[in-house]
Amino acid sequence: RVRVVERTAEAALVVPREALRETVETWTVTVRGASGPETRAVKTGLSGPEGVEILEGLAEGDSVFLPGPAR
Fold first, then answer.
1. DSSP secondary-structure letter at 64?
2. Contact, 19 vs 64, CB < 8 A?
């Protein structure tokens, strides 16, 4: 078993991959806004098994919604 690390990011803001939605022009996430859920465009960076790095569009402490189980 071999593990190759190409790049790492220190103190990165990371969200689970399933929190991201791809649109025609960008990636988005749904966050808890002042009056309920709101969609935000984000700029992504590195990705790995722990999740996807968010470079722009979220701040530390933002609550990100994950999709629920299929019904």
1. B
2. yes
CA distance 55 to 51: 13
Q: What is the H or E stretch that residue 52 is in?
A: strand 51-56
Please write the tens of the pLDDT for every residue from 45-67.
988 888 999 999 999 999 999 98
Q: How far apart are CA 46 and CA 67, in angstroms?
A: 22
Instruction: Assign 3-state DSSP to the chain and report helix, strand, coil percentages, each to 5.
Output: 5, 45, 50
Strand partners, 51: 48
Amino acid at 59: A
Determine the Cα–Cα distance for residues 41 and 12; give it in Å rounded to an integer.
18
Say which DSSP state 17 is in: G
Residue with tokens 């859920």: 37
Among 2, 19, 7, smallest CA distance to 45 is for 7
